[in-house]
Each structure stands twice: as structure tokens, then as C-alpha cells.
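Thread: "does anyone have the structure for this chain?"

Original post by V.I.:
We have the sequence but no experimental structure in hand. Need at least a predicted one for the grant figures.
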Amino acid sequence: MSIINLTKILNDINRVLLPPVCFGCNAHLIRGEHYLCTVCRNDLPLTDYSFNEENPIDRIFYGRINVKKASSFLFFTENGIVKQLIHHLKYKNQEHIGRFLGDWYGPLLKQNQALDVIDAVVPVPLHKRKLKKRGYNQVALFAERLAFHLNTDYVDHILFKTANNKTQTTKGRIGRWHGKTSLYALADTSYLKNKNVLLVDDVITSGATMEMCAEALLQTEGISVRITSMATVAQFQ
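Reply from O.Q.:
Generated one for you, C-alpha cells below.
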């Protein structure tokens, strides 16, 4: 018996003993389905935002930071499937959800002729202590797969977080604004000189995190920054 056939049999046994379930509706997944059943996958709320027309993500950053264009893949709602996916990605050790979403969104970005040639994809970093505690950056695999599909470099060693602050998701806009000074910095201000960079995060809410990261990146001479994320909160529809 070949190793491939043996692996297939073991995987089938594992699926019978511990059948994977859909993160959206908890139904058992069938062969060929990953993370979401076909119904939940079809129900995912895609934004359909692109890099050629103005969209609500662009308007978040108007007058705040000089980014060339912004977009996002999915809508994040309080009780929706996307929230379940992001929750499992960040807190349930389901790192490969990032790969799943990146391999879906990456080809869509590749087809978007309005997206300029990207020289580097940069993920929003975690502080080293949080990274050690979680074991991975939830944005990393998603950003890596975007870089793969865009045939460009994945760069995760330039932008870093300077303090292990508490999550900003429960802070108001003013609290975020006053707490953002020098929270992100560059290890090398020349590495991305004259490059077109795609900055990537998991969820865009007020845009404060992306704004801080973009400010740090814009310390580089000649850099051009574009922004995207796995999801954005539905209030920006």
C-alpha cells in the first residue's frame, strides 16, 4: 500500500472519529469542505470593494493618512459567520484559516487590474510578548498567501510594535487617538525605499491601527502604501 493511500485512509478514519464541523453553523463538513460548509461559504458577505473605485474603506482614511487606496475582503458583523472565523483564527489556534482566506482573496486581487504592482506585502505586527503567548500572528498566513498570489515579497521584519498595549477594540476614537503615539516603528527606514507596499490587517474598525502602521511606513522615502484586510465592520457599508 502506498503512503498516499495510507494517509488517505488515516484521514478518513480521523474524520469519522473526530468529524470536522463548520465554523459557521456547526454542521459536519464533507470531503472537500474546509472550515466552512458550502452553504456558509456561499453566505459569506463579500464586500466587492476593489482598488479602482472609491469605497467606504477609502473614506475612513481621508484627511488622516496619505494612503493611495484601501479595500477589504469581507463584512464583519456582530453575530455573523465572519466573526466566527476571525474568533477561531485568533483565539482557537486555527491559524490556517488565514491561508484559507488568503487563497480565496489573493486571486481576486490578482485579477484586479487597477491594483498597481505591489513590491511588498507587510502584515500588521503583534508585539513580541503577545506573539510568544499566541504562538503566531493571525494576519501572517493571510498576508503570505496574498504575497504568493501577487507574486511579490512577504516582509514581516521591518514593521514592529513598540508596546504590548491592551486591545483597542473597546476604546473610543478619542482614546485610540491619544494612545497611538509611536506604537509602531520601522527596523530599517530604507528597506522599502521607493516601494509600493500593501499593508494587511485582520479587521478594520475605526482604522486606527492601520493609520498608525501607515504613519510608520511613510517614514520611508518614496514609499507608496495601500491597505487591505480580511474584513471590515459592517457599519462602513
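V.I.: this helps a lot. The mean pLDDT is 86.
O.Q.: and The first helix runs from residue 3 to 17.
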